[in-house]
């Protein structure tokens, strides 16, 4: 008779969860000559490990927050 463990079950669930994980990376830098605040944010996103990554560059905090919110809502399924 084979053994069954909670750890094995957890590992399987963990492996399945990894298939659904997305990635979001923010890279922030300043370009003082380009705008009053000079802020630039590159938003790199992926909806899952098998999906291609996409990127966008925004120039203000509100746009960066909106991009993060949009990505999180997609991850949540809303």
Summarize the structure in words.
This protein is of the alpha+beta class and 78 residues long. It has one domain (21-76). Helix content is 37%, strand content 27%. The chain is built from two helices and three strands. Strands 1-2-3 form a three-stranded antiparallel β-sheet, covered by helices on one side.
Please give the count of helices.
Answer: 2
Instruction: Tell the overall outline.
Output: elongated
Please, how many domains? 1
Q: Uncertain spans, ≥5 residues at pLDDT below 50? A: 4-8
Largest sheet features: 3 strands, antiparallel
Count of extended strands: 3
**Roughly what percent helix?**
25-40%
* CA-CA gap between termini: 44 Å
The largest beta-sheet arranges its strands as 1-2-3
Taking all residues together, what is the mean pLDDT? Answer: 79
Compute the gyration radius: what is it? Answer: 19 Å
Q: Percent of residues in beta strands?
A: 25-35%
| Secondary-structure content class | alpha+beta
Secondary-structure element pattern, one letter each:
HEEEH
């Amino acid at each position: 008779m084979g053994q069954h463990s909670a750890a094995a079950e957890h590992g399987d669930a963990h492996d399945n969860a990894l298939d659904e994980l997305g990635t979001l990376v923010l890279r922030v830098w300043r370009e003082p000559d380009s705008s009053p605040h000079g802020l630039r944010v590159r938003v790199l996103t992926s909806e899952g490990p098998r999906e291609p990554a996409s990127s966008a560059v925004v120039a203000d905090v509100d746009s960066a927050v909106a991009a993060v919110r949009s990505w999180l809502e997609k991850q949540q399924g809303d």
